[in-house]
Amino acid sequence: MALGCASLADARTTERAKQKAEAEARRAGIAQQLQALKKDISRTESEKEDAGDLLAESEEAISDANRALHDLAQEQEDTNARLQSIADEQARLARTIETQKQQLATLLRKHYVAGNEDRIKLLLSGDNPNRINRDLQMMSYVSQAQAKLLASLRANLAQVEANREKVENAKEDLEDIAQEQREQKARLEKEKARRANLLASLSSKLAGQRKQATKLERDEQRLSGLVDQLSRIIRQQEAAAAAERKRQEALAAARAKAEAEAKALAAARARAERERLAQQGKPGARPVPEPEPPKVVEQAPPPRSEPPPPRVVQPAAPEGAFASLKGKLAPPVAGKVETRFGAKRADGGPAWRGMFIKAAEGSEVRTVAAGRVMFASWMRSYGNLIIIDHGGQYLSIYANNQSLLKHVGDMVKPGEPIATAGNTGGNEESGLYFELRHLGAPFDPAGWVRF
């Protein structure tokens, strides 16, 4: 018994680890592309050293720990729901088993009151044959009912035992999740203390850097460069998706044509067979040759020297879906708008290309519309940054987050939490920097979002 429980626990642990490994493997390719993209951006910058970069590792670690805690909380919620479902099933089975026991007791009591006569006694009793036949049928019905009731009772008892094992597995899952949460919280506290020390040591240097208009321009150019590259990737994916649709349509047309030719060939063969049979009775008749099947010309494979086609990705949203939401979008975070699009900076830097919404640290940041996460990582001056593609070359940008809750490639629904507000990237106030872009160019969110 102990060996059986151990094997079940090992299988459960292996399955859970396998699911996590598969999820990480799916993200590995995208993460590699993202890392290459960040390196390419860094190579184009004139200044490599920046005091804010020292915060990157710590703030990314804090974001990862918070995202892990968020995922674990969701996993814990799912496990608790599964546990509740099993408990409900157990209660239902208990009621059913109690009812079946009462039914079985009633049958046995009736059987006892009837005198426990068997079939042989009835046959040898010499009683009226009609009555004997009726009693035998009644005994047969009672026996069948007893057998069905016993089989159902055994099945329900077995299900109860199986549910007991499921409950034990779910409880063990909850213990594992709780242990992971404790480890992640310890890591989070350690990174927060490290970040506080970094901010204290770099505060004066960061204050001086923030006054430089050239640095602000460089930061915005860096973000624009990232957006341009992401837009190019989106266009390539859309083109690949369109080419794939055309290819599928061509294949469907080719299949339809082949089916039509096959039907025509079958009809021609049928006609030829009828003519051959009709001419067999005529003197000197020659057999009619069967028509040859159509020749299929296979296309030569493309040269191996050609680069592989872009990865086909379905559109983030239907064409025109985001444009139809103008003036209907909900705010990305609950807070006060401190700076608006186009406002001048106090330090003489470039005008604001987005909005800064002051919000409490840890406040939920929600996506303004459905889409796909295209970027989710730390970026100089913008801290933990997440960019979402809404289709039609529309992008929404969320910066200075305390933590990012989504991965690159994740599909998100309108109003779904994607991050928590903070002051990463060296920002003094806690909140969210928010931008909307179309075809790579920023535009005023005020006419789109109901602030």
From TrEMBL:
Signal peptide boundaries: none
InterPro entries for the chain: Cell_wall_metabolism_enzyme, Dup_hybrid_motif, M23ase_b-sheet_dom
Compositional bias per record (Basic and acidic residues), positions renumbered to this chain: 12-24
Residue ranges crossing the lipid bilayer per the database entry: none
Domain of life from the UniProt record: Bacteria
Domain (M23ase beta-sheet core): residue spans on this chain: 352-445
Biased composition (Pro residues): 300-312
Pfam families, alphabetized: Peptidase_M23
Region (Disordered): 1-24, 267-316
Record-given protein name: Peptidoglycan DD-metalloendopeptidase family protein
Organism for this UniProt entry: Massilia solisilvae
Taxonomic lineage from the root: Bacteria, Pseudomonadati, Pseudomonadota, Betaproteobacteria, Burkholderiales
